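Q&A log
Question type: sequence-to-structure
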Amino acid sequence: MIVRCRYSFGALVLSLCSLATHTFAQATSEVPPKDIRVTLLGTASGPRAFVDKAGISTLVEAGGERLLFDAGRGSMQRLVQAGFPMNAVTKLFLTHLHSDHVIGVPDLMLSPWSAAPERKVPLEIWGPVGTRDMMRHLEEAFAFDIHMRRDVDESFSPEGIKTLAHDIRPGKVYEKNGVTVTAFLVSHGLVKPLYGYRVDYAGRSVALSGDTSPNDNLIAVCKGVDVLIHEAIDVEVLRRLVPAKSRMDAIVARVTRWECHAESRTSLA
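Response status: OK
Response body:
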């Protein structure tokens, strides 16, 4: 189900569990000038795998830019399901390096490069300290595949398999075509640093909380945004999935509790 709404102010709350099954229509229309379009490719966080729920991943389109925030499990499939070509995204922003937020990175790195319409420009990644090391090790881990497809067999683009990774600090991390991305610190227990992001374009704005417990910095940075995409958990569902009380308490302590919502696309106009 595609949900297209007009917002002057709003909050989309994403759950770590208990999400309904939805399908995407084709993304056949261009984003109108001066608008921002947000596509929730997946809204399920946490290591648990679901057959009907994609991992956390959000696509923001503005000013001709396509910016992906986190790459959870199944994000590539959902991108294609939403009607985008595999090589549609070349810019990725990571909130943190927990596996459920980055497990789709190898797919995003390799698949659009080695299949039509073939990515021929580098994949650029912004994230917390450790992002550069992660991408370097991924290149090493897939060295055989890269070598064979680039140098021996299929002659795929040498530029297309390159990655440009940035370990970021709080503040403005990206600016192009009138689109600005600002990273800000949020709280996620012992996981540090962890970032939320704010996207500004043509007087409109979208903020993404990342995994966080209640945080004054999030409130300050997101004041006045048109849409806040906030991750949360359904505690009652989580109790059924995590029977160990000590582990359950640790998870709840570092995230916000709220109601569950489902994958959708939202246009700001």
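Response note: Helices lie at 75-81, 99-102, 105-110, 131-141, 143-152, 216-221, 235-241, 245-253.
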